[in-house]
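Work Package 3 (structural annotation) set out to generate three-dimensional models for the target panel prioritized at the project kickoff. During this period the team completed the workflow that converts sequence records into discrete structure tokens, so that structures can be stored uniformly alongside our sequence database. As a representative example, we reproduce one entry of 259 residues exactly as it appears in the project archive.
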Amino acid sequence: MKVVVLAGGYGTRISEESEYKPKPMVEIGGKPILWHIMKGYSAYGFNEFVICAGYKQHVIKEWFADYYLHNSDITFDFASGNRMTIHNNVAEPWKVTIVDTGLGTMTGGRIKRIKNHIGDEDFCLTYGDGLSDLDIRKLVEFHKSHGKIATLTAIHVEQRFGVLDINRQNFDVTAFREKSQADGSRINAGFMVLKPAVFDYLKDDTTVFEQAPLRTLAVEGQLKAYKHNGFWQCMDTKREMEKLEELWASGNAPWKVWS
């Protein structure tokens, strides 16, 4: 099963980093967040990726082109005819297709543009800026069990601010407390599994996947939610990037499900 990664947006909310590179190439622990996402899928046996690139797509292509070189110990012997010796073999079991899906293309349009790379099989879809300790195998098993077109991962998110419990009659604040998982509804965390029939819901480059397509699928009873109560964190802002960096530096990054 192929894994499609949406990696073409501008990343304007983290412009301190994305001015020079696409957001999925912003580094956590010296490796792009895209690498962390792919390592997570690979840990569960999903090794074929289709990257929907756009903004500064050449950066992604160049990074993968030099991946072997950057991750191996090498001796350059200029005195012997510029000979290069590889001392170790650092490689991933990945097949990576990088598709330029356009600069201003919306998420649904990007997915539509990679249709020819998918074929007739179900495929995974995720965003290039979110990390989780989600068990991908269980997600895929759940998707296969219900037979609907689309499955998304639904999570609770933490809130930075305190929660007010307010009396609805006299508007007295009855409590001020930290937000718990019992507060509010779940949100779409990405990490989706889709049948090829989803392409019928995608019109053109202006299609925002999270709007009309997903709403229509929901109305038609073709959208299921896989509830995940573990770790999930997106990287929309510099603050969130620093949070992920701190977790990685601690040696206990929850999303590191690989050995």
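The two ends are 22 Å apart (CA to CA).
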